[in-house]
């Protein structure tokens, strides 16, 4: 192949992952490369003949073929086009050797990649003089290039390359150390242990290949301990910490770093989630994934945002129209909204903000404005419209991250809500203090609204009589943790259900506000149903999105199941709530810890199964149905009215987005409800 240095080199990106393509394309183009895309192997064949690309980037798993098989067919057809291989699945040494030795692949990357480094290496490969001699005829010293991980050691060949490999050892040691810390903090999570085991296994083999025997032996001991943990649930932490310290010490020695500067692993604190460490710099709920709704009609800007948050656990929901944005926000309120302005429609921003603030759960969601204009008039207009954070062009990555940090921090600060029963004077004082207040004049009205409004404090007025009122309020609530407070002159002052008694002549307003903030903060941090332990709907949606994305990146299936309680119509509220709680607790305890388990609405629950085929999920759900049937036989008086209907959907058979899977599962759930109690529909 001859290169024309005055013409931009063409790179064919063969990958069905839209997010990966959109994130690396701008970075490749920044190096002066022309990038064309193909989502399937069959499309790539046609583009090779038409465009004659200078280099191919090939993914390991494609919709219509396997990436390695596709490269084998390409080589058999006589094409010697340079290739870079990218995969989240193929990590073993045998595959690496087959790619680099037999198939003449220049470089091997493992997903997720560091975008800038990936683009730099691809540009370097395409600009360097490249031999197109078949691999079997190549001199030994030019056989294979380095396999590149974003955060793991590479596997070069030869003595010079072994020296190059040594520079990656401290990085590999740090990554393995972080994985061991996560195991130490979350040993019960199968996925955390599996990731640490994979890293230890890779380091064991790679270090042995390049002659670092001490590191290889220490990594092997870590691997053995982790396998023991998987089998028995126990391991020797003293041996584990000693082994990881040896890995780090020998890795430091390999690059000439002083061993004395290394701190022992046992003294290191457990790590937190990427979202917390990146944005909040403090611990947040483990299942909290910030969701950023992006209203932007410029594809280049969306690609930039994806690249900016590529290595941060933030779920982006890009849309191009106000209608789409409102539809998504109405289903699941985001953590923050980011709006590009001007859009093609100049009136889009005022219209969006007006309707967005009226959606349930979106009144206090922070809005970030990306503006091409940075003049006082535009800033004043944005403030009048209700924009929280103004971010002008040109956008700097540091300022973008800081804006999202501010929005997430603000969203994590709870706003308390107080319900007042029959005390208009107290309600007026609460409102004048700037605290959200809901005034009810009848107990029946409060009981109808409490499950919807979920107040943090219920302040019972002095005119309320009847010692059973607090107990009735508690029993009516499905998922509300709230404090009950009254004044000293109330007939209910001696009720054991009361959280606090207030002096009407003292600082009662401060006490009410402080208690409401405490309850709101506790509820926000939990993000879970207090009675069942299941994720609440917004947290469950974010977890499902994260699970599906992970499954797609790693070439795994992902299934979603919607389970609805049947037979609760006509029951009194107390018994219906008790049966729903029983079913929720059953779902929480009978599925794997790594599965997403959440409450969709009052009678419906959702489960996300990572890495399980539709058939495997069907077997698991059928066992759950059998267990519930056995419980009904043992406790007929309690559980005779409780049945469930189940609808299942599976990626990639039923769609490749979270929304498509949920809609398919919902449709099958409706069919199951029509079929009768304990029905399961999955295809």
Write a concise synopsis of the structure shown.
Helix content is 48%, strand content 15%.
Based on CA inertia axes, which overall geometry fits?
globular
Estimate the helix proportion, in percent.
Answer: 40-55%
CATH H-level superfamily of the largest domain = Reverse transcriptase/Diguanylate cyclase domain
Q: What gyration radius follows from the Cα positions, in whole Å?
A: 29 Å
The top level CATH class name of the largest domain: Alpha Beta
Total count of domains: 5
Strand numbers in spatial order across the main sheet: 2-1-3-4-5-6
Q: How many beta-strand segments?
A: 21
- Kindly name the structural category: alpha/beta
Structural descriptors:
6-stranded parallel beta sheet, 21 strands, alpha/beta, 683 residues, 5-stranded parallel beta sheet, 25 helices, globular, Rossmann fold
